[in-house]
Amino acid sequence: MSRGLGDVYKRQVINNKKGEIMNLLKNAWVILITFIVSSCHTETFDVVSPNGDLKLTMELAEENAYGEIGFSVDYEGRRILSQSKLGLETDAQKLARNLKLKSVSTVKHVTDDYRMITGKRSHCVNEASERIYSFENEMGQTLEVTFRVYNDGVALKYGINAITDKEYITHEYTAYAVPKGAKRWMQEYDLGYEKFFPLSTDGKLADRPEVDLWGYPALIEPQDSVFVLITEANIRRGHCGSLLYNRNQRDSYQVQLADKQPISDGSWESPWRLLIIGDLSDVVESTLVTDVSDPSKVEDTEWINPGMVSWIYWAYNHGSKDYQRVKEYIDLAVRMKWPYNLIDWEWDEMENGGNLQDAVKYALQQGIKPLLWYNSSISWLGPGPLYRLNRKEDREKEYKQLNDMGVAGIKVDFFAGDSVATMNYYMDLLEDAVKYKLILNFHGATIPRGWQRTYPHMMSVEGVYGAEWYNNNAILTNRAAEHNATLPFTRNVIGPMDYTPGTFSDSQHPHITSHGHELALPVIFESALQHMPDRPSVYDNLPEAVKHLLSELPTTWDDTKLLAGYPGVEVVIARRKGDIWYIAGINGTNEPKTLRASLENIPTHGKKMSLFKDGTDDRNFAIEENIPLSDGQTDLEIGCLPRGGFVVVIQ
Q1: How high is the pLDDT of residue 63?
Q2: CB neighbour burial string for 160-198, b if at least 16 within 10 angstroms, e if fewer
């Protein structure tokens, strides 16, 4: 008995010793992990771009007085965004405050390498460092945040799992903190994205300080010569668009969802929130919007052909009801060697000697591809035709008829904002069009968010305060030059922009930009379908060299470079097609200005230059053709009139 008790005692001593050792090991392990995390914080939580210029730092809830997670961004060693917030909420779970870091993935290298039919560059290549952060709230519910830090920006997206059968994303807490007093060019939110981008330093409109909703893209200059363009990309079925809100803090722009979004199949992933970062050339030349978007869903793309379009509406503030006038614009396309003519609204009421079938037949006989206008029938039920595209069976019937007739594509107008239903409708229109080989152009529409890569037959989108507004009121007359010199740094960065440039005469309200300025716009503004809006007689009376330029002008590009510029002041852009460079510049001010740009990155050896610039007044050109370029010529200096411009062709 005593020996048995002794054995038990010995075993107890041994077990106690083991427990003490295990506790010591456990405590040592905790101390070791704490030491590693605290001493290697940068290695654990930061993400650095492949070229080292950009660094993202994750900020945890315990480091924030409000218990919020967030991030900061450094560019070339300088902090440009601080304490920008993160978080998401559904109608069943809140994943915003007091989130604890659960895990961090290792850094993954991402390479984007793809071809584009349309856009500013035919071959797009970009690299990023990616890291996924997993957070957990008090209920054990998980939020994943994926960051990609590219050489020219930061992309982030959320991922969550549903906890109920019918769950909706209701709020997003992403908020971009902008340095107080920073310059910003932002558009008041509008369902059709048809507003100006006025300069502000306090987050308000000077004439309407109550405005607190802003549309994408939003350009910020947080430090001198360092810029951030805020937007989003890769909208998928079931997503809504978003906008920015700054009522509570004028220097903090929170993402506000346009609609609640359903979580299907038990999980949900957000669109990418994008910050394009760098100097102005980094911003303008960036392809980040398409880099993060889904690859093309169209296998056979031979039928997708960009080009210039003759367009009837602008000159007469009217549609295509008059068959004889429609023929005039088809004939203009023939003379100008433009491949397309748009038959605009009211074609279902066409009269004066012919109907739609006659107009389409006439265009095809002349070698011109007709495009047709449609009302989306979900917003303004004004001009027709109406309700032909809404239901799938009606849409497919209409598409088949168009294909059988020889119509090449459609322009769909008057959409209804950024709701889930509207975004799904865009995709319905695009996906069903592939079978019938129809190209599409969206008007009265949202901005591009990467669909130009996923659906390469989406050739253009309005989403801009463009030349059409000369028909509507007198505001554009005095603001056009500054506005035009802002768009290359804002709206046109993110995708094709159907501004309808090149108005040499006056519509209902006059323009005071010069002929040189107007000629520059089809080069400066990127759009795979470039609608030329003026009267046939105006184009016929242009100088022969100008007509030849407009006849040969590409609408898609192999490369794009910003040579000089500042928002609202001036811009000089170079675009390459094959081995020909087109360089265009505009003066956004009301004073004469010499535009200067470096040709250091433009091949000039053995090349000749043709120059189209302002003449003695704003309604004339000065033209010099086939000027030999010296091998050492690295600078371009061209004098411009107030609101003037130029085009240079190097070949």
Answers
A1: 81
A2: bebeeeebbbebbbbbbbbeeebbbbbbbbebbbbbbbb
Predicted pLDDT at 35: 39
Place of tokens 């605009």: 344
Compute φ and ψ for 425, nearest 5 degrees: -65, -40
Q: What are 460-463's contacts with CB under 8 Å, separation 24+? A: 460/496, 460/497, 460/498, 460/527, 460/528, 460/529, 461/495, 461/496, 461/497, 461/498, 462/192, 462/193, 462/194, 462/497, 462/498, 463/192, 463/193, 463/194, 463/491, 463/497
Tally of residues, the chain = 651
Return averaged pLDDT per consecutive 10 residues of the chain, 651 residues in all: 36 46 44 38 76 97 85 97 96 95 97 98 98 97 98 98 97 98 98 98 97 98 98 98 97 98 96 98 98 98 98 93 98 98 97 98 98 97 95 98 98 97 98 98 98 98 97 96 99 98 96 98 98 98 98 98 98 98 98 96 93 97 94 88 98 96
Taking the C-alpha atoms of residue 349 and residue 384, their distance in angstroms, rounded to an integer, is 9
Q: Say how far apart CA 81 and CA 164 lie, in whole Å.
A: 36
**What's the rounded Cα separation, in Å, for the pair 427 and 258?**
17
Contact 423, 152 (CB under 8 A): no
Which value, to the nearest 10 degrees, does the dihedral of the CA atoms of residues 324, 326, 328, 330 take? Answer: -140
- Residues 252, 383: Cα–Cα separation, whole Å: 41
Comparing C-alpha atoms, which of 449, 413, 396 is closest to residue 236? 449
SS3 for 215-280 is: EEEEEEEEECCEEEEEEEECCCCCCCCEEEECCCCCCEEEEEECCCEECCCCEEECCEEEEEEECH
Answer yes or no: are the C-beta atoms of 349 and 384 closer than 8 Å. yes
Q: DSSP secondary-structure letter at 486?
A: T
Assess contact for 519 and 548: CB atoms under 8 A: no
Torsion of Cα atoms, 503 then 507 then 511 then 517, to 10° = 0
- The count of other CB atoms within 10 Å of the CB of residue 323 is 19
| Dihedral-angle region of residue 160 (phi above 0 means left; psi in -120 to 50 means alpha; beta otherwise) | beta
Residues 6 or more apart in contact with residue 516 via CB below 8 angstroms: 612, 613, 614, 615, 621, 640, 641, 644, 645, 646, 647
Cβ atoms of residues 167 and 90 within 8 Å: yes
**DSSP letter string over 444-485?**
S-PPPSSHHHHSTTEEEE--S--GGGGGT-SHHHHHHHHHHT
Candidates 422, 428, 421, 494; CA nearest to 461 is: 494
Per-residue buried b or exposed e for 572-601, using 16+ beta carbons within 10 Å of the residue's own CB: bbbbbbeeebbbbbbbbbeeebebebebee
Give the chain's end-to-end CA distance (angstroms, integer): 108
Considering the entire predicted model, what is its pTM? 0.93
Give the count of beta carbons closer than 10 Å to the beta carbon of residue 472.
13
- Any idea what DSSP says for residue 616? S
- How does DSSP assign 347-390, residue by residue? GGG-BSS--HHHHHHHHHHTT-EEEEEEE-SSS---SS--SSSS
Rounded alpha-carbon distances, angstroms, from residue 275 to 50, 214, 218, 438: 16, 16, 10, 33
10 Å CB burial of residue 94 (0-12, 13-18, 19+) is buried
Q: Rounded to an integer, what distance in angstroms lies between the CA atom of residue 130 and that of residue 551?
A: 45
Please tell me the distance from the alpha carbon of residue 201 to that of residue 188, in angstroms, as a whole number.
Answer: 15
Q: What is the pLDDT of residue 44?
A: 59
Per-residue pLDDT at 61: 86
- The answer to whether 192 and 498 have CB atoms below 8 angstroms apart is no
- Residue 410, SS3? strand
